[in-house]
TrEMBL record, chain A:
The protein's name in its UniProt record: Chemotaxis protein CheA
Lineage, opening ranks: Bacteria, Pseudomonadati, Pseudomonadota, Gammaproteobacteria, Chromatiales
Gene Ontology molecular function: ATP binding; phosphorelay sensor kinase activity
GO biological processes: chemotaxis
Composition-biased stretches (Low complexity): 253-283
Region of interest: Disordered: 125-155, 242-289
Domain CheW-like: 542-677
Automatic annotation (TrEMBL), chain B:
Keywords from the named record: Cytoplasm
SUPFAM superfamilies: CheW-like
Record's subcellular location: Cytoplasm
Keyword Glycoprotein: no
GO BP annotation list: chemotaxis; signal transduction
This protein's name: Chemotaxis protein CheW
Organism annotation: Thiolapillus brandeum
The CheW-like domain, residue ranges: 19-164
Main subcellular localisation: cytoplasm
UniProt keyword Cytoplasm present: yes
Amino acid sequence: MSMDLSEFLDVFLEECFEGLEAMESGLLHLDEGTDLEEINTIFRAAHSIKGGSAAFGFDHISNFTHVMETLLDELRNGSRQVDKNIVDLLLASVDILREMVEGLKTDETPDEARVAELKKKLEMALADSGASSDPESETPPESDAPSKDQDQAEAASWHIRFIPGPDLFRDGNDPVRIFEALAELGSLRVRTDAANLPSLSELDPATCHLHWEATLEGAVTEEQIRETFSWVEGDCQLEISQTEAAPEAQSDKATVTETTAEPAAPAPAEKSAAPAAKPAKTSPNRESGSIRVSIEKVDLLINLVGELVITQSMLNQAGLNQAQGGGASAEALLNGLAQLERNTRELQENMLQLRMLPINVAFNRFPRLVRDLCNKMGKKVDLVLTGEQTEVDKTVLEKIGDPLVHLVRNSLDHGLETPEVRAAAGKPEQGRLELSAQHESGNIVIRIIDDGAGLNREKILQKAIENGLVSDKDELSEERIDNLIFQPGFSTADKVSDLSGRGVGMDVVKRNINDLGGTVSIHSRQGEGSTVMIRLPLTLAILDGQLASIGEDTYILPLISIVESLQIRSENLNSVAGSSELYRFRDEYIPIIRLNSLLGNSGGIENLEQGLLVVVEAEGQHAGLFVDRLQGQQQVVIKSLETNFQQLEGVSGATILGDGQVALILDIPGLVHLFHKTRNQMRVPALAAAS
Amino acid sequence: MNSNAAQKIDVDLQSEQGVDQYLTFCLAGEEYGINILKVQEIRGWSEVTPMPNTPDSILGVINLRGTVVPIVELRSHFNLPDAPRGPTTVIIVVKAEEKNGNQRTMGMVVDAVSEVHNIASTDMQPAPQVGDAEDQPAIAGLATMDEHMIIILDVDDLMINRVLGLADEEPTTQK
C-alpha cells in the first residue's frame, strides 16, 4: 500500500494556499452582507483542503478543517446566521490553517495549544446554536458526498457495499486507504452512509458508525476487489455485485464530474492513468484552461528567447551588409530577415507575458489588513480596489508587496482620521482608501488615494530643517515639501504610533521602489487627502534603454531616469572653487558628471561644448551626465553581472547589443553616489591642507 | 614532443585511479596547468567591454553565447610583464566553483595553450613556500614533464578567492 504521494504534495500545498486565499477573501465579502454563493465558495475551499490533507495523512489539518467546515455548513444551509463574531472566528481559523500548511513545508508543527484553543472555540460556537443539524464523522473525507449521486448507479460496473464493524478504526484500518487502492483499479465513486451516527454528544470518534457504498468502473474482477478488502474482510459485511456495464462515453463523463467531488479520489485516479494502460477511462483534465509550469522553466525559455533576439539582430546586420549588392536573392534575404525580426519580437513579447500576473495577487491582502487595522484604530474606512486585473511581472509583484503595505498602513495611520474628527471636519464618517493600478506607456502605475487629512507641510518642513535636509531660507514648492518625506534621514519617529511604529521610514519604501527601477511621489491637499503614485516597469527582465557613446564604448542609460538631453551652452556653465562643474538647468544648478572619468574610460570627448548633457533624476535630485553622443533607444535584455562576477557600483547589469558586444547598463542613483564619493575623496586632503 | 602530446590527448578522459588530465598553457615563458575538467572551452582573443572601477587584471566582459563572462588577464594578475596579443593568444573559459557549489563561468587570457598531460597525484610536489602565503598564486602543486616544470593551478582558489576576493580569510595555497 505504498503510494508515492510526494510528487502531489507540492500541488496540494499550492492548492491549499489558493483555497485559503479564496476563503479569506470570501469571508471578507461576508462582512458586507450574506451571499450564498460566497459561502459556497468558502465551503468548497475548506472541503477540498480537508479532503486533500486527509489523503496525505495530515490529520491535524483535516480534523481542524472539519470543524470549520461543519460551521460553514450551518451557515450554508441557513441554520445559522452570519455575524461578525463568526467571521472573525473563521478568519482566525484561516490564519491558523495557513500556519499549519506552511508548517508542512518546513516540517514544523504549529503551536498545538493555539490550534486546540481555536478548535475549541469553533466547537463551542457550533454547540452554541444547538442546531448541529448535520453531524458528521471525524475521520473520513468522503463523509459528505452529495446524496444525489445514487442515481448514477446504473452507469457502474461494480457495486460495493461495505459495512465495517465498529472496531474498524481501533484495528488500525483506514477506509481511505482501501478506497485509494480501489481507485487504482478503475474509476471510483464513494458514498458515505452516515445514517447510524449517534448525536454529537454521544459520539465516540474511535468507533466506526459509517457505511460506504461505492461504484467502481473498469476492467476489474471481483477477486481484485475482494483483495483490497482482505485486511478487514473478517470484520465487516461486504457485498459486491455487478451492475450492467454502462456505455463507455457516458460513464466517462460521469466519473470525471464525480471524482472532482470526491477529494480523496482524484490523486490516485491520475496516478493510475499512466502505468496501467487501461481504456481511456481516467481523463482528469479538470482545469482545461490552464497548466501549472514552474517559474524556472519559463525563465529558461525567456532567456533562450533573449538569445534568439540577439542572434536575430546580429543576422540582421550581417544580412544588410550582404544584401548591398542587390539582386533578387538579396531582396529575398531582406524579406526573410524582416519576417524573422517581426516573429522574434512577437515571440519575446508573448514570452514575457507568461511571467505576468494580475496585480490582484498583491492587492488581495489589503481588505484583510485594512479591516484589522480599522478595528484596532477605531476608524471606518471603505477600501476600493480598481484595476486589479492589471498585469505585471511576477518578480515586480513579489517585491512591491511590502512597500504597498507600508504605504497603506501609513495612509490609515496618519492620513485617514477617526470618525469623530471627520464628522467635525464636515466629511463623511467613513473614510475612503483607494488602491488603483493601470498601465501607462509601458509602465504600471499604482496609486494609493485617501481622503484623509493630507500631509502636514509645516511639520514636515520644520522636521526637514531640524534634520538639516533643507535650510530655512530655501523656497520650496509644495510638491517638493511633500516629497521630502521620502528623503533618507527624514523620520517622523516622534509621532509614529505603535501601529505603524515599524522602525523604517518612507525612504525605505522609496529605495525599494527605486531598486525595482521605479519612482514614487506623493501629492497632497491639506484636509482633502493625499495620493501616492508609484510608477514601475512592467518587467525586470527587459529595460527601456537609451544608448550613449563614450569613446569607443556604448553604455545604456535607463530611459525612466532621463529627464532631458541637451546640448551644452557655455553661458550656462559654471564652476565652483575651480573644480566642481555646475550647469544651469532651468532654475537649478546641477552638477556635471563626466562619465568618461567616472567610469575610467580613456576615450571620450573632454570639451563640454562638443558633447551632450543627459539630465537625469536620482533620489529627487537632478544631475547632468556628460556623454559624447546619444545613439538610439531600444529595449534591452538585462543580464546580471553578479552571476559570474560581482556587483559594481554605478552599474546595474549588462546587456548584449546587436553586434554581439556587451554593453553595461548604468545605475543612475549608484553613479551619482559614486560621483559624490570620489568628489569627497578629492576634497578631504584639500580641506586638511587648508586647516 | 608533439607526437607525444597527440598520443596523450587520445587517452580516455576517464583517467585511471589518481591520474588527472591537465591542460597546460604558456604565460611569459612559464608553463602552467589546470585540471581539464574545469575547462569549458578555449576561444580566440576577442574584444572585451571594459568595466569601471575594477582591478587592472580584470579586462572586462565578453558575450559568450548570451552569457556575460568576465575576463581575467593572468599576466597582470601574476604581476608578469605585459605583452602584446599575438596570434596564439587565447581565452580559456573555466568553470570555477565556490565552496557552496555555486559555479561561475570566467575567462582567462593566456599567451598560448600547449598540450594535455596525464599527471598522477603522486607525481605532484607541493609548491615551495616563497614569500608570504597571501602572495602565492593559488598553486596546487608542481609537476615535471619532459624535463619541464609545470605549475599546477587550483582554478577554484585562483578565480574565486584570488581574483574575485570572495574567500574566507585563511589562505589555501596548498591543496
